[in-house]
Amino acid sequence: MARYVLNRLAQAVMLLVIVSAIGFAILHLAPGGPLSQFAASAQMTQEDLDRVTKQLGLDRPLPIQYLDWFGRMLKGDWGRSYRDGEAVLSVISSHLGATLELMTTATIIAVLLGCWIGISGALRRYSLFDSLATVGAMIALSIPTFWFGLVAIYVFSVKLGWLPAGNRETVGDGSFLDLLHHLIAPAMVLALVETAMWGRFMRSSMLEVINQDYIRTARAKGMPEWRILTVHALRNALLPMITVAGLQFPTLLGGALVAETVFTWPGMGRLFLDSIGYRDYPVVMGILMFSAMMVLIGSLLADILYAVVDPRIRVG
Amino acid sequence: MTAATLSTVQLAPGQAAWRRFRRHRLALAGAIIILVLVLGSAFGPYLLPFDDTYIDIMKRFAPPLSGAHILGTDELGRDVLARLMMGARISLSIGFVAMVIAMAVGIVVGAFAGFYGGVVGAVLMRLVDAVLCFPTIFLLLALAALTEPGFATTTVLIAATAWMWVARVVEAQVRSLREREFAVAALAFGSSNLRIMFRELVPNAIAPIVVAATLNVAKAILLESYLSYLGYGIQPPAASLGNMLNNAQIYLTSAPWLAIAPGVAITLAVTSFNFLGDGLRDALDPRMNIP
Questions:
Q1: Stretches in chain B below the pLDDT threshold 70
Q2: Would you tell me how many other CB atoms lie within 10 Å of the CB of residue A22?
Q3: CA-nearest residue of chain A to B125?
Q4: Residue A184 and residue A103 in contact, taking contact as beta carbons nearer than 8 Å
């Protein structure tokens, strides 16, 4: 077990190095490179630019600069926002809560709904419910999230007037019920794609398990059907879902960005788009690296957790 | 999963595959819808009396089916149907071209990684893993922020965020095909590595490649719509299915039809390619089990 975890950890560290190198390369692709902020100002002379270049150490060879940047990143120094000079990490963390709130709610909806749909579909394979669910999942995966958000706003806010059309809270209210009221629509929209994914994976996992020999053995023993399903089938079918959670994470983050934009939700995704609008490269790159690191850690945790619950993984 | 794709069928593999494909009604429907969309966006604009960029400020916000404008007009009085057809033309083109680029990159990377294995394979596949760590939309937007928007940029950027899946599929195929007799025979014949890779191994992995290509078009169309909706893809006055929705949110209360037509078109196109890909997967290789 320890060997597996160490092995996986080493892989993750190696990936982090490559990921950060890609991030560094993109940063240097920015027009004017990391100097763009200074170059944009008309009062800067070439002399000033040279001085700043030297000050920031940009005249050193790229590999050295990369190592320096990487070291500072590990220490939590991610640079400062061009907009207000605030440290990038603190800008990100002040927006993270809203995003996590949205993502967690959507994931809970998606896991419950998706697993239910997937299991029901697998148990009644090729039934009307199963066919509708399969087709529905494919359509759900094909709908642009932002458009689904627009439709939701039109139906529930414009026509029915049930839900607010955006924002996280009513200014001056902010009670729990008010927060919940604002959360429903964006969480629903974000949950759509996730539900479809979870449903599809759950269905195929369940189908694989219920055709196994041990299920037949349990049936032959005369075990009641509900016990076969809950104790023997479900437990085994749910295991691979841990991997799905890890695989789903990038999609979930991307979806959150879109949902936040449509519903003017003050999260990390919206911050990212705003920062792009302001050409605030340190924040843009910070969020890009941050999201990649979240994905990296997410898949690492999923793999380790999977190995904990399923001994076959550790050995194999 | 072994890579034997068409070899499972004894007689006339093409025919058997076609029979399996035909059974897949939704895939067939998808293929027909794609054909209609392609033809409609290619020839439709010539049949309409309106130009997609013609501004008629007197006829702003004409609702659908009121007078000459079948799908109504937008905030500048431009005909929505004309814009829809031109937008679909651009979006579909981006979908196809981005797919071709992503396939080319993915096939080359996957073939080299799978064929050589060892250090080369490990380095290439770790690169694939690393790029996959970035959530697609974040990477796409960050790159878009650093470049000049336009048709070519949008296409290349979408391809740059989509080739990794192809590389993974091809790598797995090539790695397992490499040990098969025909590959060993080609090596014994003295064929060069490049020849074995691209004339023997890759053609034998054509089934999963075709499936990946089809799903890739769906993904590219979807990504174009995201990018253009957010304002970093195709720029107005040119229309794309995504950027038509750009302003639709502002006018959602007064002119909801502006949001409906492009959204339905995107969903229809993406769903069709996804169903087609699903059908092709079942038809070309019943044993392929990518979820």
A1: 1-13, 22, 285-291
A2: 19
A3: A15
A4: no
